[in-house]
Fold this protein.
Amino acid sequence: MWIKIKRVIRSGFFNFWRNGFVSLSSILVMVVTLFVIGSTIFLGVILQSTLEQIKDKVDINVYFVTTANESDILAMKKSLESLPEVQPPVVYVSREDALAQFKKRHENDQFTLQALDELGDNPLGATLNIKAKDPSQYQTIAEYLNSQGADAAPGTSIIDKVNYYQNKEAIDRLTKIINSADRLGFALTLILVIISILITFNTLRLVIYMSRDEISVMKLVGASNGYIRGPFFVAGAIYGFISAILTLLLFYPITLWLGKTTANFFVGLNVFHYYTENFGQIFLLIVGSGIAIGSISSYLAVRKYLKI
Amino acid sequence: MIHFENVSKIYMDDSVALEDVSFRIAPKEFVSIVGHSGAGKTTLLKMFLGEERPSKGKVFFDSTDIGTLSDQEINEFRRKIGVVFQDFRLLPNKNVYENIAFAMEAAGRTDEEIEADVPHVLELVDLSKKIWNFPHELSGGEKQRVSIARAIVNQPDVVIADEPTGNLDPLNTYDIVQILKKINDLGTTVILTTHNKGVIDSLKKRVLTMENGKIIRDDKEGKYVI
């Protein structure tokens, strides 16, 4: 048994080495496949982080009337944080902070500041900034806030306004875009991966088609099916392994270049850092899929010629 | 040892390749099968190798009915038979040594046996000098000698040579026939198919003559008569 395995592996290496040109072209095709698979990983990450960024920018603000008690507001903050839809923490901006922020924003605008001074009193109410765990949940939170306001007797509600309804359309549209981008990305990835696997499979089939006479000779000298398949299986795995290494090398300069350009564009994510930080996982994924695609395709492709 | 019993082969499109063929071949016999192309010679050999099954009748090797063997059993059965083809059918990516070693590996022989037997069998076909060459570096006659070496290296009970001289010049043809005779003298049954009148006439061995899927003559010390 051991001697058979040894012979199969050795003969697989010879097949690979002596079919130099064919091996080279199969490897190139597989590099393309693995490159597609790798790119979809990066694209997914970029899309994901961009969506995260956008989601992070969406929130709803509750504006309180200027006469609202701080303790009431803090109580409401607490009850909001206990809602399952809300992503804690809910940020409380007091009247004083709001004023300070306002002044800072308008520090070059003398007229506004003067007008503010003439008012004497702080015209700004406190606010709560609420983030939902998922954009689709803003509706529920807004409804909850509304019911809070409705509970109080008319004229005594501490909530001045909730800006969800002004932003509703924008938030709804964004939710839709995010969801469909997710779905479209997934579908595209799947299609691309399937196409490239089929191309690889076909290439290896052609390689094995050229060996069909060889396979029939092997059958006629009485070699068992497993013994004939083995070397093709091994050669397929070698194609996969080498292609994977080439692909990983290829990603190095590409992500380095992309990293610089995308870091400015897609806020916060540097593809190159992502690549180097997650190299272990990406390595396993690419090498694993390379070897799997190569060996399984070869294995299946030989089957056709074994029926003599 | 080999026994065809009322064997017919009819293909899907109703074309008849063999019709009610019966004959026996004894151990250590040298039998030539002659006939025009399409007379059924190759079908006959395929039937014996288990590549095709008879539509009617049975093919026996000793007491085994070849038509009933499983795939695995056919693999083992083929290791007892050496085959030589008109187009040599060497593995192009393997050198002479490996081509012959492959047949031994398939039969599950040890590395020591392979190292000992391959040079020996190459000596028998007078090709020791080309042991590390690849098939494309050999002449037609040399390729056929490698193919014969591969066929006999597992010491088969039967060697089948299907038109082994079809692609060779007269001198190489003579050499190949001499080698086949030598193999037969060493005790192996040889079945030869050929078009070559000169080969048959010089052999002075048993000849089966085929025409349209039937055996029309069976001569003890035959000549090429069609």
About this structure: The longest strand of chain B covers residues 16-25.
